[in-house]
């Protein structure tokens, strides 16, 4: 059977791919998003994101969704607190209310983008296993799915995150371990059920740091606390703990926090549900690729970086919006659109990736949290 032809095919319906799809469809350009997950509800999207004025918010303006976004922002969520292991506060910033980096629930942001797309744009449960060029003159590709089906496309966009199946078409780079493991937990209904931990967290983001170890977290819009214990350690350290055995894993991680303030240790000891371990990976800073007819990347597929500058989701959306604008400006010359998008993409993402790598070093520095507190003080308006 002849594969269905899609003029523009986006692989991956994360924040980056959906922003691109929204900008295209809002401008009358057809596209299809192939998404591996079976439905929008198949995975809890969880976690707060601060959406930066110059990147994520700019993308939402391009997508015509900034007004709706404002109604979903978590009031007070821009607050930030830095403490040491004893809970002594080194810096406490209230939400300035300037709307510079307002916080929104990731799931609500994804829903905003999904609801703005024609229903036929996103095809759920379509896991792409790979793609290959079938006409180097036109840049046409054949895209294969796990269920054996395939498509052809004139423009293939890998928006499929860290372990992109499209990236190998343009680059040999693979994500590498960035030196930090995260142990992730939630504390629900925190003010009522976990008042000491909720008071320590404050209204927004918390950094509790001590050299190689940190307790980082956010207060979520639903009143829960989302907490990450960050640990600078060998890549295989995670494998030394059986996280399926929640009680023992909790005791092990809590022991790592011996001598820390009880409310910081309590974020692990009193957590609801299992501890989710995750390694933080990154692509090389400055990852780029030669112009390749008919294919490009955006978001984490293009520039996976550690989360310590809070840039990844913002950049993914900006990439989507900027690439969308380039296609709208040059719908009959998609190669020109790809070239102009990539010309801005590479220096922009190299700068952000370097920022993220520098922030990782600051957050897990030997003198942490003092360097981070000094950096925030230096950046604060006079
Ligand atoms: C712990 C943590 C905290 C973070 N905090 C922040 C933060 O505060 N601020 C911030 O800006 N960023 C943050 N980030 C980074 C942010 O999550 C990512 O940069 C962002 O999600 C990238 O968006 P994306 O659309 O490129 O990729 P993704 O969000 O990864 O979306 C990719 C999509 O592609 C789909 N997919 C994958 N493979 C296939 C396939 N083979 N076929 C079809 N579909 C596929 C996936 O199901 C997914 O829906 C954080 C990351 C982590 C790990």
TrEMBL record:
The keyword Cell membrane does not apply. InterPro entries: FAD-bd (IPR002938), FAD/NAD-bd_sf (IPR036188), TetX_monooxygenase (IPR043683). Residues 7-178, 295-329 form the FAD-binding domain. GO terms for cellular component: cytoplasm. NADPH binds at residue 43. Its cofactor is FAD. FAD binds at residues 50, 106, 300. It is found in: Cytoplasm. Belongs to the aromatic-ring hydroxylase family. TetX subfamily. An FAD-requiring monooxygenase active on some tetracycline antibiotic derivatives, which leads to their inactivation. Hydroxylates carbon 11a of tetracycline and some analogs. Consists of an N-terminal FAD-binding domain with a Rossman fold and a C-terminal substrate-binding domain. This is Flavin-dependent monooxygenase.
